[in-house]
Backbone:
């Protein structure tokens, strides 16, 4: 994320007096868009797998591996 300075450059902005003030009757310069603007992300998402689904997947893999091993032993014997 890059930072963009939202302040106008006084030497390049029309309608500004020295020091950056705006004379009476003059419209002040518009704000530039800021990429950092907006609500802060308050929801901290967890990363990784929880223990229960990971345990179930590993148990299923172990059962399939045991099934293949039993099938291979049944073909040999």
Residues:
């Amino acid at each position: 994320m890059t930072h963009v300075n939202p302040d106008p450059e006084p030497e390049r902005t029309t309608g500004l007096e020295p020091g950056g003030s705006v004379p009476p009757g003059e419209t002040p310069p518009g704000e530039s868009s800021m990429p950092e603007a907006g609500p802060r992300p308050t929801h901290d998402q967890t990363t990784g797998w929880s223990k229960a689904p990971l345990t179930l997947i590993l148990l299923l893999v172990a059962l399939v591996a045991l099934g293949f091993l039993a099938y291979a032993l049944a073909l040999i014997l």
Observations:
- The helical segments are 51-76.
- The chain has one helix and no strands.
- The chain has a mean pLDDT of 76.
- The radius of gyration is 33 Å.
